[in-house]
Amino acid sequence: MRRILVVGGLALGIALSIGRLDAQRTSQAPSNAPAEQWPHYQHNSNFSPLTQITPENVNRLTKAWTFNYGAGTVDNVPFVSLDYRFQVQPLVIDDVMYVSTPASETDRNLASTVTALEPETGKVIWQYKSPRHIHGRGLAYWKGTATIGPRLFFATDKGHLMGLDLKTGQLAHGFGNGGEVDVYVGVTSPNVPENRRDTFTVPNPVTVFKNLLITGARPGELPPPQPRGDIRAWDAATGKLVWSFHTVPWPGEPHHEDWPGDTWKDRSGCNVWSNLTADETTGLVFGATGDANRAVKGSNLYCNSLIALDAQTGRLKWFHQLVHHDASDWDMPTPPILIDVKINGRSVPAVLQTGKLHFVYMFDRVTGKPLYLVAVDANSGDIAWSVPLGINEELAEFGDAGLKSGIRNIGGSIATASGLVFIGATVDRRFRAFDAKTGKELWVTELPANGNATPITYMGKDGAQYVVIAAAGGGPAARNMTTSDAVVAFKLAPAQGGGTGSAATAPGQGRGGRGGAQQPDPWPGQKHLLAVADVLTGFHHDSISHALATVEQIGRKSGAYMTMIRTDSQLMTKGQVAGVGRYEGRGVNARTLGYYDAIFMLPSGYGTLTDQQKADLLSFVRDEGKGLIVGHATGVAFTDWPEFGEMVGGYMDSEFNANARVIVEDPKFPGAMAWGSPTFMFNDQHPVFKAPYSRDKVHVIMRLDPDSLDSQNRARRPDGDFPVVWARQYGKGRVFNVGWGHPETTWGDPHFQTMMLEGIKWAMGVAQADVTPRPFPKSAAAQAAAPAAAAPQAAMSETAAKDPLPEDVGKSTVQKICGDCHAIEQAISIRGTARDWKDTVDLMIDRGANGTPEELQTVVKYLSKHFGPK
Fold it and tell me: For labeling, which of 45, 85, 169, 476 is most exposed (least CB within 10 Å)?
């Protein structure tokens, strides 16, 4: 994988190509962190594996929502102090967004908050109002322990560190004194004036390493006596101090001799005022320090240095001073980045550091050995690209050369696996996306104020990838400009159709690719669903049109996917679709299997798939890891194709109409709790499954409660197992099987629509779930067994004593046709008119029953005569 590191200068965006790299996950980004979330500040070195937004479709980004915390928009603000700055990078944890917001300098009633938001809408879930001014550029997340729940941590004015319970939004019980720790204590001597507390804070989110909170400091920039800028670690559960490292060495510590006389005492400099970066693989934490706040004779160690400490003990492992005797504030303003590099074919864990001199330094993460003193491409040392960043309207008189010369900026960038770099930062109120390979600006939008923050990206529950940035302005680079209180989210707008195309075949088309489509992709970057209702050989359900329309609409409205609807199976091939007549030898814009992420099927009868199409469909799911969603009547389709029954999880033995109670077996499956309850009543035509259905092969999500059924319907499954919704892994792919959907009312039910949307997203790989097969609950089996062994079985044994079919013309035909699929007793467990029995026989044919027209007519006459309405 090719990674791009972007360094923002005063006027230039410089991309440093990290050839064939993967950023190492730090303790802030544990290896099991979901790819679609953003659980930590500068998560995964600000690199996202998401690929829905691409260089090809990024120009379709549009505003999805805006959250305003209450300070409003103000023009011509001279300066915003630390108590009121809003430079937050939000977190997204378990599908909830968390942001810290500042108080207002003009509205004394507006308090600092920690706010939980819906990441798809920006709506407030809960809010904690802090009695202190929250500082820093965001929050820190600790996942907790077996006995302590997850927490959020943040720093405040006057040197306090506070913790919140993630679930309740209340101060964390047991952490420090009532949820806060005074971190100013321990970094001063009696010579330091008490008012120095006013300038002391932890300016960025703390670094979480296992159960430790590791902090830098912003002690102020005045000459001694001042608070010290020590690096320290605190117990995340109790708030107790675990270790300290003196960035200005004390007597008896290595390199203390570098500080003549008492120049080391009460010195505020050499502090880590950016973030520290922890690495669980090596157990090290890395920090980049500032200058000495007025240099003294000597090198001034450990100022302007990259420091590696043992994260558990704080013991120094190695360091490199990058600027010696800094008298000009050339310190290290950015956190270290963890990467792997290839050297002589060997992978080396490395740590990379940038600075104000626009150099990039790289060292062996374990030993501290320099890899490249000034590196750009980690394997070649080449600059990948360099482009101006920002519009400078003050130079408009010089034309484009002046306008596009770049402008002041302060803020971070993120990169995505699809090849994009997103950055605000500039004081021209713009938010931009660049091509990570070339540096070309692909998209730009205007914000309410300067985006002097680092954006994030994540995948919403609706299947859409979002990009979010705080747009508040007010930083040191943005004096006398507009400030705002906005968090702005963007996502892709629906595509507006495709262009004129070209007669040439585009790359990726043909077998297994885009299937010979010659027009441009109408939905680039979107998930693609093929919805097929091929009923040419089977029963034509009245609900089919509504079903297909519903599946298309829930995907379009949510942004989760776009749908191609067909009532034939022509596109279900990995091959090309040939034109005929005037289109012979020409492309017909047919997007075949290679184009889609999943298929939704409403089949009936034997279907029209050729043997090759059947093989292609199996391979699409099993080998290529794509999704298959099947609806009502699938259990009676392709009964002559055993592999299909195996893939979808079983065939139907029968079905019945009832308003039955549904039990949600797996409430954790996406969409399973759409009805808001673990049990609910649902009226539909419910399936009864037979082999190859087995609890050893499928993961049942919902089943009918047999106690809600009448005795006749309950007798259809003596074991009481009536699954109606299940999921399964089929090879590399995913299958979501829904037995409902016979009436139109089902497809109009918003609860059912939510369940379908989430199930489709799971099948597409957008959502995750454990679909390990589970046995039928023993309590349910025992409950079902008792009545099943009583009245229904007694009735069956009673009829077994005599032939259940009266002697008459047609008896042998009924035995022949009905007995092939199930017991005769089950076939005649219902009663009906001649029209009812004709419908039943039609369904039997749909399931694969064989017989001549004359024989089938005989069956209807016999059953309606002897088993008509009571």
Answer: 476
Query: What's the token pair of residue 634?
Result: 């699938």
* 3-class DSSP assignment, residue 487: strand
| Percent with pLDDT over 70 in the chain | 86
The single residue listed with the structure tokens 């139907």 is: 652
Is 301 exposed, middle or buried (CB count within 10 Å of its CB: 0-12, 13-18, 19+)?
buried
Structure tokens at 509: 């088309």
Cα–Cα distance for residue pair 212/208, rounded to 1 Å: 6
Q: What number of other Cβ atoms are within 10 A of residue 97's Cβ?
A: 27
- For the chain, give the mean pLDDT: 85
Cα–Cα distance, 817 to 828 (Å, whole number) = 13
Strands 91-93 and 284-288, by their bridges, are unpaired
pLDDT at residue number 36: 79
Residue type for position 461: K
Given a contact cutoff of 8 angstroms between Cβ atoms, the answer to whether 662 and 704 are in contact is yes
Nearest CA to 112 among 165, 178, 164?
164
- Which residue in 522, 597, 526 sits closest to 559, CA to CA? 526
For 519-557, write each residue's pLDDT tens digit: 778 888 889 999 999 888 777 888 899 999 999 999 998
Sorted by sequence, the CB contacts under 8 Å of residue 557 that are 6+ apart come out as none
Sequence-ordered list of residues with C-beta below 8 angstroms from that of 851, at least 6 positions apart, any chain: 813, 816, 817, 845, 859
Weakest-pLDDT range from 124-138, 183-197, 663-677, 834-848: 834-848
Residue 352: both structure tokens together: 């990379």
Amino acid at 823: A
Q: Tally the C-alpha atoms within 13 A of residue 553's C-alpha that lie toward its C-beta.
A: 11
**Reported confidence tier of residue 5, pLDDT bands at 50, 70, 90:** very low
8-state DSSP, 196: G
**Locate tokens 């003050």: which residue?**
394
Sign of CA dihedral 740, 746, 748, 753: negative
**What pLDDT score was predicted for residue 846?**
54
Would you call 111 helix, strand, or coil by DSSP? coil
- For residue 117 the two structure tokens come to 């938001």
- CB atoms inside a 10 Å sphere around CB 536: 14
Whole-structure pTM value: 0.59
| Cα–Cα distance measured from residue 706 to residue 383, given in angstroms and rounded to the nearest whole number | 69
Q: How far is CA 118 from CA 67, 92, 461, 857, in A?
A: 10, 9, 10, 59
Number of residues that this document lists for the chain: 870
Q: What angle do CA 583, 585, 589 make, to 5 degrees?
A: 60
If DSSP states are collapsed to H, E and C, what string results for 718-766? CCCCCEEEEEEEECCEEEEEECCCCCHHHHHCHHHHHHHHHHHHHHCCC
| Residues 6+ positions from 67 with CB-CB distance below 8 Å | 99, 115, 117, 122, 124, 486, 487, 489
For residue 182, which of 155, 212, 221 has the smallest C-alpha distance? 155
How far is it, in rounded angstroms, from Cα 633 to Cα 192? 80
SS3 229: coil
The residue ranges of DSSP E strands in 401-464, in sequence order, are 413-416, 420-423, 430-435, 441-446, 456-459
**What is the mean pLDDT of the segment spanning 638-647?**
92
As a whole number of angstroms, the distance between CA 151 and CA 172 comes to 7
